[in-house]
Amino acid sequence: MFEGFETRRVRCGDVTIHARGGGQGPGLLLLHGHPQTHVIWHKVAGTLARHFTVVAADLRGYGDSDKPAGDPDHANYSKRTMARDQVTLMEALGFERFGVLAHDRGARVAHRLAVDHPGRVQRLVTLDIAPTLAMYEQTSLAFALAYYHWFFLIRPAPVPETLIEADPELYLRSTMGGRSAGMAPFTDAALAEYLRCLKSPGAAHGLCEDYRASATIDLEHDRADLAAGRQVECEMLALWGEQGAVGKCFAPLEEWRKVARRVRGRALPCGHYIAEEMPERLLEEALPFLLGA
């Protein structure tokens, strides 16, 4: 995986962020979701690197990035803080402006990055999310059943951490395999990396803190944006899986149009893990957009 890419470790404020870099041309930041790492991009990174200098990063709390203990108000895992990590990373690698392609939790970080740092993001692609505030405010029984972990992981420490750490592989396989495509999209090599990282010290706490922040301080930031009229200003493409809970429980494009000025998008014939389920189709949709076509 990631043939020709180099490992990067960059100090970003209070944490060191781990990433893989490769290719040449304009900068393109790739951000992953839960409970995964930058490895989700292994099926598309090589093609993207023909056009961009690709930086596939691990979010704080995930992968081989640092996993600090959470603050009482979860501020050090807010999407604002996690977005600042990535701006610092890209700046350290020589990119003042860059494109962003992001999935799941990483797409929530990317949303915040585009709002807080509008001069940094040239174009934004989000995969299989609707805005966090909309999803929490419109929670239904169907959504809660499909995304039970949104409510499990935000319970006070150390209960969810203890249960995850008791059997990380069970948590990984039940979470990822419980989606529409089962375990079929994931290669053995990628799964081994996801499990290795989930077993690392602090990993369970890091991902719980990510979710705790989303249910608290992140919602405060999102509501403040709405009140002030702050939106995503760059051109944006929202893609989601028609077989996933986001597409079935929400109207993603309608919700994005409430918080982004120039957004288009569509459902793809797959589930949640688009980059691993349908890498070719993702490239067909995202690459021309990122190139400005």
TrEMBL record:
InterPro entries, sorted: AB_hydrolase_1, AB_hydrolase_fold, Epox_hydrolase-like
An annotated Gene Ontology molecular function: haloacetate dehalogenase activity
Top-level taxonomic group: Bacteria
Gene3D superfamilies (alphabetical): alpha/beta hydrolase
Enzyme class of the recorded protein, top EC level: hydrolase
All residue ranges annotated as the AB hydrolase-1 domain in the record: 28-165
Keywords: Hydrolase
EC number of the protein: 3.8.1.3
A Pfam family matched in the record: Abhydrolase_1
The name this protein goes by in its record: Fluoroacetate dehalogenase
